[in-house]
Each structure stands twice: as C-alpha cells, then as structure tokens.
Here is the input.
Amino acid sequence: MAAMLLKGGEAASAVMKEVAAGVADLARSGYVPGLATVLVGDDPASHTYVRAKRRDAAKVGIRSIHHQLEEIPSQEELEDLVNGLSADPGVDGILVQLPLPEGLDEGRVVGCIDPRKDVDGLHNENLGRLVAELPGPRPCTPAGVMRILSHYDLPVSGKRAVVVGRSFLVGKPLALLLATKGADATVTIAHSRTVDLESLCREADILVAAVGRAKMVKASWVKPGAVVIDVGINRTAEGLVGDVDFAEVSEVASAITPVPGGVGLMTRAMLMSNTVSAARGNISGLGGVG
Ligand code: NAD
Here is the structure.
C-alpha cells in the first residue's frame, strides 16, 4: 500500500480531547451539557449509530436524554416531541437520527429543532448560515472530513476537489465547506446523472465518495497522488465497506481514509463538538452555536 492511511480514530481522539476540555470547562461553572437523541423505528444501523453516539457522550461527561420510539409515531406526535425538547432548558443539543421511517417528513421534523440546538447542523437556518459563511453548527460528516484533512495537514487551498454525491447530509454541505473562504478548493459536485464520472474523478486532487455503492471508485478513477476520502458505508457479505475499492485505490492515492475506521469516527466526534458549542451558547445566553 503506497497511500498514507488517514486514521479517523487518531483525528477523532484529538477532537474528543478538545471536547473533554470543553466539558470540564463548563463543569467548572456547574454546567453539564445535555444531548437529546431521538430514535424512531427498528433500523439496526440507526440503533448502532445512536448507541455509539450515546456512549461517546457518556465518555466525555455529556448527559444523554434518549427517546426511543419503537412504535412509529404520527408526524404530529414526533413534531410535538421535538418541539418539547427544543423548549426544554435542560437540553443543549438535539439529534434526530435519520433516515426516519417512510411516511414521516424529515424536513418538517428537523425544522422543529431549535436552530441553536441543532447539533447535526441540518436545520434550514443553519444550512443557510453555511451558504452565507456565517458561524453556526456544520453538518457532522462534512465537518469531520474537513477536520481529518486539517489533522493530517493536507493542503486544500487551490486544489481541485470532486465530491461524488449531492445529498443535503453529506455531498452538498461538504462541497460548500471545501469551497468556502479559507479552505479555497475548486469544487465539482458529481451525482447519479453525471456523464463520464470516471474521467471527472481522475481530475481530482481531492476525491470524496459519498454515494452508498460498495467499492464503486476504482484505481483507474483516481489521479496518482490524489487524496481520497471515503464517506460511504455499505453493509456487504464481507462486512462494512466503503464506496472506494480500498485495496486498489490505496496503491494509487497519496492518502486515503479506511472504512471502517475513517470518516464515521469523525462524524461522531464532530457531534460531540457541536454539542459542547451549543451548551456554551446556551449558558452564555447569547444562543447560537459557534
Ligand atoms: P444519499 O442516498 O442521500 O445520496 C447519495 C448520492 O449519491 C446522491 O446524491 C446520488 O446522486 C449519488 N449517486 C447515486 N448513485 C450514483 C452513481 N452511480 N454515480 C454517482 N453518484 C451517484 O446518501 P448520503 O446520505 O449522502 O450517504 C452516502 C453514503 O455515505 C452512504 O453510504 C451512507 O451510509 C454514508 N454516510 C456515511 C457517514 C459517515 O459518517 N461515514 C455519514 C452519512 C452517510
């Protein structure tokens, strides 16, 4: 393997150290941050994610307030629950685990989260703040990708980045973060209708795959020396694999994130970081997540 391994565990533990220091700081003012998690339905992957997030919270001293709704609620019931958490002064951050079961309108549910408690950074107000380059919570996975790049001192400015995937959760916000002032990459967003995706990807200095198709990105798609970030998580017979054919691509890329052990760990760490920022905003009385 020629490529440097971008270890999510290593970068995430640096973030978690900052988070623990932030929690300790708040504790000195007698404040313990609270993160509310809302899990609807019985999707095994969602259960695993929420369990991991609650474990992370416990590790750093963040209180977790968990709502597990095995029986699918009505849209109104779910909105009432989230509105209640938004109004609850004991809750600093709210995470509604997505995707919600079919029939529930995710946009409307996320819209009920007080934007100051929106630790996933997915409320329209916070997505607007991202576009406007105003401070605010950034979506955790894109923020985690930016952090892993900076953790390993990988230059972004002036680089040609291709982000494959245009979801509001990953692809679009990540493209904005890469292009934002200070990061300064030149970014192309590719998607399911992109023509000749392989050639486009081969132009990238930084190639991000956020699609959900196991091992889609092959060595022939990658410019020699490119940095490859694999956001994909695919459950296959051989276990968890990313969107990148790791064995092939790691022979061509200069740096690559593994799956598992890459971006997923960063996502979780950024959630904790956003929760501490939300708690700081809460006790300062100013509101808003820095
Ligand atoms: P999504 O289904 O919302 O979006 C997938 C995107 O891929 C779409 O924009 C679509 O246009 C594009 N796409 C689909 N087929 C394509 C093709 N053949 N060629 C090019 N583009 C294609 O998914 P998402 O929520 O953005 O998640 C993407 C992947 O990232 C999934 O595997 C998901 O599990 C994973 N994910 C990982 C983390 C993490 O923390 N590591 C977080 C969120 C999502």
